[in-house]
Design brief:
The protein has 195 residues and is mainly beta. It is built from 1 helix and 10 strands. The protein has one domain: Porin (Beta Barrel), CATH 2.40.160.
Length: 195
């Protein structure tokens, strides 16, 4: 009984600094994996970051307003049946929303997030296809886990899906059977600073 009391007291004391911390800044690196039913797309390098501010706290969870920002620096894709191959494109996503973090005072804290925002695509083009860019609405869904490594610092693993229009919208305008939306899955790892 005494050891259980000591463990509970230690967990309570470890949670005290986390209660005072209302803001989080994160930076992570990973990959952008576009998934589209019409176009062939390849995986590209991605950078991501976010700001989150706590709105409400209960004993085993906290609700945050978050602004995630992510970018796929260079992916490659094409539409082989239309003779379009090796088209480089970049992506940018921002989707403000809500995050529910479970057990925020414990060493391991899983979370879930959702939001709505804007996607921007830039198609680099080549001699056959002109460069172009366009915007699209985006719906964001995420799941992740934070591992505390210091009082104000955590390691983060996350998978985020930005469901948006596709980067080849201008090439496929008006053609039947072309998927107009795609998933942009970004698995990433990084660091979180809490203050």
């Amino acid at each position: 009984m005494r050891s259980i009391t000591i463990v509970l007291l230690a967990l309570s004391l470890a949670a005290v600094p986390a209660v005072a911390q209302k803001h989080e800044l994160s930076f992570s690196v990973g990959a952008q994996v576009p998934v589209n039913a019409t176009f062939n797309t390849g995986t590209g390098f991605a950078l991501a970051g976010s700001y989150a501010g706590r709105l409400a706290r209960v004993p085993f969870g906290s609700l945050y307003f978050e602004v995630p920002v992510a970018g796929g620096l260079k992916s490659n894709g094409g539409w082989p049946s239309a003779g379009i191959t090796n088209q480089d494109f970049s992506s940018f996503f921002v989707a403000p929303g809500l995050r529910l973090k479970l057990a925020p005072g414990l060493p391991v804290s899983p979370y879930f997030a959702a939001g709505v925002g804007l996607a921007h695509f830039r198609l680099d083009g080549n001699g056959f296809i002109p460069a172009s860019s366009h915007n699209s609405t985006v719906v964001d869904m995420a799941a992740g886990v934070d591992f505390k490594i210091a009082p104000h610092l955590s390691a983060r693993g996350e998978v985020r899906d930005f469901w948006s229009g596709n980067p080849f919208k201008d090439l496929a305008a008006g053609l039947p059977g072309v998927a107009d939306r795609q998933h942009n899955v970004i698995p990433s790892v990084g660091l979180v600073v809490r203050f």
